[in-house]
Amino acid sequence: MATRGAYAKGVAKREEILESALAVVAEHGYRKASVREIADAAGLSPAGLLHYFGSKEELFVAILRARDDRDEQEYAGEDASSAFLAVMRHNTSVPGLVQLYAQLAAEAGDPTHPAHAYFRERTERVEALTRARVAEDQKAGRMRDDLDPAWVVRTLHALADGLQAAWMLDPSLDMAAEIEQFLVLLRPS
Fold first, then answer.
1. Phi, psi at 187, each rounded to 5°
2. Domains of the chain and any CATH numbers
């Protein structure tokens, strides 16, 4: 019985660390968010922090998973287009997380990178969820039904990733407005 209590406390502490880490990375970015700074924010030593995650890379993957969980809960009830735009608008308020995502996405092309499995799983999960939402939007007449939902999702994903990279270079870029222009093309005439 003590094991379950200790496990529950460990899970709770891990969630507390992730909350602190999300805030630190969102504010300071991937390169400036050190293990020490995240540990300090969570009230731990760097070694104590890594006890819960194993390595800095695994911590950063866990941060992205936590960000994804938040976004999925926050925008679950919206149609595909509205949810997508809401996430892109929100991303402008968390530049450090956008930077972390872009950096790890690039590094995850290496199959031995700790983020490789995360990005493969994330892409499959997000694209499956979004394909279902696109199909619902097509049935409801909110989106052209002559388009393959898989193509729509892959194209939106690529557009969003490209816009995020461009936005990091030029924060005046309105990512959501750019995507809205593309979504107009997907509406029935």
1. -80, 150
2. 57-186 (1.10.357.10)
**Model pTM score:** 0.82
CA 88/CA 105 separation, integer angstroms: 17
Identify which of 74, 65, 136 has the alpha carbon closest to the alpha carbon of residue 104.
Answer: 65
The CA–CA distances, whole Å, from 149 to 8, 86, 129, 138, 153 equal 40, 20, 11, 9, 6
Give pLDDT tens digits for 121-153.
Answer: 999 998 998 899 899 999 999 999 999 999 999
Q: How far is CA 82 from CA 37, 88, 89, 90, 179, in A?
A: 35, 10, 10, 12, 11
Angstrom distances, CA of residue 45 to CA of 13, 52, 54, 58: 13, 11, 14, 17
Give pLDDT, residue 4: 63
**With contact defined as beta carbons under 8 Å apart, do 101 and 87 qualify?**
no
Residue 5 — very low, low, confident or very high, per pLDDT cuts 50/70/90?
Answer: low
Q: For the beta carbon of residue 74, count every other beta carbon within 10 angstroms.
A: 13
Query: How far apart are the C-alpha atoms of 50 and 132, rounded to whole Å?
Result: 38
CA dist., res. 128 & res. 133, Å (int): 9
